[in-house]
Amino acid sequence: MTTRKFTLTEVSTGKTSSLDALSPSVGSDVLNIAPLAKDHGVYTFDPGFMATAACESKITYIDGDQGVLLYRGYPVEQLAAKSSFLEVSYLLIYGELPAPAQLDEFRRNITRHTMLNESLLRFYNGFHYDAHPMAQVSAVVASMAGFYHESLDIHNPRHREIFAHRIIAKMPTISAAAYKHMLGQPFVYPQNDLDYCANLLNMFFAVPCEHYQVDPVAAKALDLLLILHADHEQNASTSTVRLAGSTGTNPYAAMASGIAALWGPSHGGANEAVLQMLEEIGTADAIPKFLAKVKDKNETTKLMGFGHRVYKNFDPRAKIIRETCHQVLANLGRVDNPLFELALKLEHIALNDEYFVSRKLYPNVDFYSGIIYSALGIPRSMFTVMFAIARTAGWVAHWQEMISDPAMKIGRPRQLYTGPTARDYVDIEAR
Ligand code: CMC
Question: Which residue in the list 267, 308, 315, 398 is annotated as catalytic?
Answer without folding.
Answer: 308
